């Protein structure tokens, strides 16, 4: 088993997976200007892939410069986690991460995301099936024999990122929250014990509960308490904290203060590809990269509407005079060419 988590230099500072944000174009920009230690894809629905939804494979596009790259997935059907394992292995991912922390109501209704915190039995079954699928693939079982739809099998077989040579198992990790109910330390401790029984390579803990959603303040003290329990049971598991980190310095300080192996940076990355270097940038630099980002988006996602790119452009427009007016203009554009036209008019005035 090639467990890359154990090879990363500590503190490990990674980019947190964010649905609708950390897509292939965004990650390409991040890696070009300040690459983090580890990167996750957007989370992808296991059930959708196993049902043959070819469009969902867009969430798994990545470049070689992103390694180590971890595919993040979500769902609640253990059998489908077994089926998807060879698909992700064939695509050449360095690891697979199961989302057990998303508070989205639609995902919760399916039994996935943070709802698994309240259903540790199912959570363990999901992990067991995923790991068994990885193991069976590594031992030589063909992807065609896992019960995946033909179009998904063909996508994996045609992928240019497919692994060559000897097959190896890849590590499984989990990203989760400190619990379901607010301020329940015992619940957090109980969940930590369950996590240690899953044979995970890494556990990333967001310092909010399910009920908090994204409100309030992340509780790093509870993350630290969970980390103590995990370390006592299995010292080989790496543990990352997540929540409210504003810069690379704070990420390193929190990892040290709370006894963690590292931290994941989330929302602070938006519109700031330089965050992992700690570099301060000018408005002109940010806007220039915004144009580059828009071009990457169009090049990679030929079928996606450009409207999905607009929020990224808005994040680049901060910290300079007239930023709100520029944002308003960018919220109306429909392609990278229009983006460049709007921004170039601004740049010459800066």
Task: Provide structural commentary.
Helix content is 41%, strand content 14%. Strands 1-8-7-6-5-4-3-2 form an eight-stranded parallel beta sheet. It is globular and about 60 Å long. The protein has helices at residues 24-33, 46-50, 78-90, 105-109, 120-138, 150-158, 185-196, 220-233, 248-257, 283-300, 310-316, 323-330, 336-347, and strands at residues 12-15, 39-45, 69-74, 95-100, 172-179, 202-209, 238-242, 262-265. Its EC number is 1.3.1.-. Keywords: Flavoprotein, FMN, NADP, Nucleotide-binding, Oxidoreductase, RNA-binding, tRNA processing, tRNA-binding.
Task: Give a short overview.
By secondary structure, this protein is an alpha/beta fold. It contains 13 helices and eight strands. Belongs to the dus family.
List the main descriptive attributes of the protein structure presented here.
2 domains; 8 strands; eight-stranded parallel beta sheet; 350 residues
Provide the fold topology:
Layout (H helix, E strand, L loop, with lengths): L11 E4 L8 H10 L5 E7 H5 L18 E6 L3 H13 L4 E6 L4 H5 L10 H19 L11 H9 L13 E8 L5 H12 L5 E8 L10 H14 L4 E5 L5 H10 L4 E4 L17 H18 L9 H7 L6 H8 L5 H12 L3
Parallel strand pairs: 1-8, 2-3, 3-4, 4-5, 5-6, 6-7, 7-8
Helix pairs in contact: 1-10, 3-5, 7-8, 10-13, 11-12
Largest sheet, described in full? 8 strands, parallel
Order of helices and strands: EHEHEHEHHHEHEHEHEHHHH
- Under CATH, the homologous superfamily of the largest domain reads Aldolase class I
Q: What is the average per-residue confidence, as pLDDT, rounded to a whole number?
A: 94
Give the % helix.
40-55%
The CATH class assignment of the largest domain is Alpha Beta
- Quaternary structure annotation: single chain
Amount of beta strand: 5-15%
| Count of the separate structural domains | 2
The helix/strand class is alpha/beta
Q: How far do the termini sit from each other? A: 52 Å
């Amino acid at each position: 088993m090639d467990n890359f988590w154990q090879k990363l230099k500590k503190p490990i500072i990674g980019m947190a997976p964010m649905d609708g944000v950390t897509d292939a174009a965004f990650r390409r920009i991040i890696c070009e200007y300040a690459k983090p230690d580890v990167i996750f894809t957007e989370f992808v629905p296991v059930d959708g892939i196993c049902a043959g939804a070819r469009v969902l494979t867009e969430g798994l596009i990545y470049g070689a410069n992103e390694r180590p790259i971890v595919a993040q997935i979500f769902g609640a059907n253990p059998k489908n986690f077994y089926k998807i394992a060879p698909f992700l292995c064939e695509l050449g991912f360095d690891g697979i991460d199961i989302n057990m922390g998303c508070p989205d109501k639609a995902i919760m209704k399916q039994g996935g995301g943070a709802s698994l915190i309240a259903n540790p039995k199912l959570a363990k079954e999901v992990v067991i099936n995923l790991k068994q699928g990885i193991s069976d693939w590594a031992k030589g079982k063909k992807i065609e024999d896992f019960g995946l739809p033909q179009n998904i099998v063909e996508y994996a077989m045609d992928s240019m990122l497919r692994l060559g040579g000897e097959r190896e198992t890849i590590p499984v990790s989990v990203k989760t929250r400190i619990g379901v109910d607010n301020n329940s330390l015992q619940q957090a401790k109980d969940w930590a014990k369950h996590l240690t029984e899953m044979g995970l390579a890494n556990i990333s803990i967001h310092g909010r509960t399910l009920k908090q959603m994204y409100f309030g303040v992340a509780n790093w003290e509870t993350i630290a308490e969970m980390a103590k329990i995990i370390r006592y049971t299995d010292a080989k598991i790496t543990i990352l904290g997540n929540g409210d980190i504003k810069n690379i310095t704070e990420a390193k300080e929190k990892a040290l203060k709370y006894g963690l192996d590292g931290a994941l940076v989330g929302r602070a990355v938006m519109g700031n590809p330089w965050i992992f270097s700690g570099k301060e940038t000018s408005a002109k630099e940010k806007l220039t990269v915004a144009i580059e980002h828009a071009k990457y988006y169009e090049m990679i996602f030929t079928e996606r509407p450009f409207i999905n790119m607009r929020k990224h452009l808005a994040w680049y427009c901060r910290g300079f005079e007239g930023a709100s007016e520029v944002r308003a203009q960018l919220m109306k554009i429909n392609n990278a060419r229009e983006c460049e036209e709007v921004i170039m008019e601004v740049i010459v005035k800066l």
